[in-house]
Each structure stands twice: as C-alpha cells, then as structure tokens.
Design brief:
This protein has 5 helices and 6 strands. It has helices at residues 63-73, 81-97, 105-116, 121-131, 137-149; strands spanning 11-18, 24-31, 37-43, 50-52, 58-60, 102-104. The longest helix is centred in the middle third of the chain and has 17 residues, at 81-97.
Length: 151
C-alpha cells in the first residue's frame, strides 16, 4: 500500500476492524519510512451482475429497484426499513455468491416473494399481483388460497 504522505510502498497494519455492514475491513496502517498513519478499506471485489428483463433487455443490477418495489408493496403497512434493507442485501449477496453473471427479473422476483411472505401477507399479495401480472380477481384468489394452505 502506497503511503499518501511520502509515497513509500512499505507499511504495517496497526489495527483492523470490521465495518458495521460486515462487508469491509478498516485498517490503520503506519508507513515504515515516515511513520505517519493512514486508513485503508478492504472490500470484496464484486463482479457486475446483468439483469435480464422479461422482454430480453439487459441492464446492470440495481439494488434500489428491489428496495423501491418492496416499499411500494409495504405502503401503509407496519415494517421496519431495516428489514427491507436486510432483504435487499440478502438478495444481492445471494446473486453475487452464485456463479451466474446474469439473473432474470423472474428469479429476483421469486427471491423477494420468498422473503416478504413471512413479514406481511398483504404486502406479499401486493408484490405478487404486480410481479405475477394478475389479470383478474382469480389471480388474487389463487394466491390467497396458496397462502392459507401453507399455514
């Protein structure tokens, strides 16, 4: 690691701490040449994920789209933002940990449904109605019956 003060490449790690997110490590380093201290962060390199939409279009993965869709489903429902953030992070990590560099919107939608079902059945139905494109009331009835049969 190059010292930001003198440019020397030799330093030692004085202290290491995990960040609150658990996804990075903060390291305090001391330059062996000038003895000044500086901070570095170490993170896992993540490969870009391509999302394949239903119409075949491809675009980069955007965790905000997952979060926004859940916020809409949970509108006026009791849910902690931390729960939605946790679900979004779980989904993102699951996708990153898979060996696939492309993921379909269908697969992402199923992952969301799987995780929001235990939190709130109404939000689950709302999300399912958009994701599964219910055309009439029968779609809602079938999904509600599915929830009731799994209780």
């Amino acid at each position: 690691m190059k010292c930001p003060f003198c440019g020397d490449t030799e330093s030692k790690v004085v202290d290491s701490r995990h960040n609150e997110d658990g996804l990075s490590i903060r390291r305090r380093r001391e330059c062996l040449a000038c003895q000044r201290r500086f901070t570095t962060y170490e993170i896992v390199e993540s490969l870009p994920i391509i999302v394949v939409k239903r119409n075949g279009a491809r675009q980069g993965f955007d965790r905000n789209k997952i979060m926004q869709s859940m916020v809409r489903a949970f509108d006026k429902r009791q849910v902690e933002t931390a729960d939605l953030d946790r679900i979004t992070t779980e989904i993102e990590q699951t996708i990153q940990n898979s060996l696939e560099r492309e993921v379909s919107t269908d697969k992402i939608g199923e992952m969301v449904l799987e995780r929001i079902r235990p939190l709130d059945e109404v939000a689950y139905i709302r999300f399912a109605s958009v994701y599964r494109r219910f055309q009439d009331v029968n779609g809602f009835i079938q999904e509600i019956n599915s929830i009731q049969s799994h209780k």
